[in-house]
Specification:
The structure is a homodimer of 217-residue chains. Chain A contains nine helices and no strands. The first copy, chain A, has 217 residues and is an all-alpha fold. The first copy, chain A, has a domain of 137 residues: Tetracycline Repressor, domain 2.
């Protein structure tokens, strides 16, 4: 991008104050949903903290349900994109353990670096309307399939234990990887260290193992 | 208890309808907090669903903050009690792996069998007042210490990996064990199977391991 100031969407009308973009409104909504809970956040508060009139929200969204669905989508998109990027960056002949480790680190990266959306996802999912969940379902299912396929490949490659069904392993794994967004404190160690520790814990378990790879593989 | 009907607290006044006990009110509050979110649940709703007048709540609690602190306490008490009971039931010479497995299963048991309180704990913790969290702090810290001591014993016994600090292992472990309350469906398999699978996943990891114990140790 050749310009040092952000390029605005041409569809957004000019004004004395630059109007909040769709993305800015979603980020504000995600933060408020996380901080106050879903039911306790109003369209008026979202508008106010986005620096726009309440009615201007409708320029971008047809209501709180739609904002909720978009926040859920952004949360899953954050982890989906990060996992895809990490996998795509691997050499073509990367072994299955490296691929699985890259996916684990990708999920953690997406969780922590888009924390406003991923934390909001975890905290509001059960409180939004059925309509918002339905709107969000396809992107959520696609992410579930991504993990199920990867884990099945790891079973087929002899890397992953085969005595526990893949969907159960996936539920355990994704749950365990979601939790750090609640407690990770970058002042106590960088992301790379956290990712290496969590990856070691999920792949190899808490107990000692003869011949185990070190934390940094 | 020699009588077949529940013995009521003598301090509770007799009435045409048996008045809701403190425990019943807490269970109703926990369910409403979980279902609707903390901010969206009123004292009036808690009273109504407990079958009492709104003002009668104050017979047991001095406000919503106190109810919140008690619900948080009950959630942690559920897992604390279950872990202590499982550990106490072991033979005196049980090895460290057996002890750690018993503690893991105890936490899962407490989470799932007192799900109204444990799920409420997870969902409202960040939304209650600072005062409610402060009231709840000591019981929460005691549970953290219980795990840190157990995990340190496992490190000392050579069972647990020593390359990751115990508090980090504990945060990962408890987070991973909290998640099933969100997705466990008893119709897809009993508690014993779930506990064996989760215990295997946290202790031994997702990957295959030569000479690993079977799921049921």
């Amino acid at each position: 991008m050749p310009r040092s100031t952000p390029v605005r969407d041409a569809a957004v009308p000019a004004a004395a104050q630059p109007p909040a973009t769709r993305e800015q409104i979603l980020a504000v909504a995600a933060r408020l949903f996380s901080e106050r809970g879903y039911a306790n956040t109003t369209l008026r508060q979202i508008a106010q903290q986005s620096g726009i009139q309440a009615g201007s929200i409708y320029y971008h969204f047809d209501g709180k349900d739609t904002i909720a669905a978009c926040v859920l989508d952004e949360g899953i998109a954050a982890v989906t994109d990060a996992v895809h990027r990490r996998l795509a960056a691997l050499p073509a002949d990367a072994d299955m353990r490296t691929r699985l480790g890259a996916a684990v680190e990708g999920h953690l990266w997406g969780m922590l670096h888009r924390g406003e959306f991923t934390a909001a996802h975890i905290r509001i999912y059960r409180y939004v309307s059925d309509a918002a969940r339905a709107r969000h379902r396809s992107i959520r299912s696609a992410y579930t399939r991504l993990w199920d396929e990867l884990l099945q490949q790891a079973v087929d490659a002899g890397l992953l234990r085969s005595d526990i069904p893949v969907p159960m392993v996936r539920q355990f794994l994704v749950g365990a990887l979601n939790w750090p967004v609640d407690w990770y404190d970058p002042r106590r160690g960088g992301f790379e260290q956290l990712a290496a520790q969590i990856t070691a814990l999920v792949l190899d378990g808490l107990t000692t193992r003869p011949g185990r790879r070190g934390l940094v593989s």
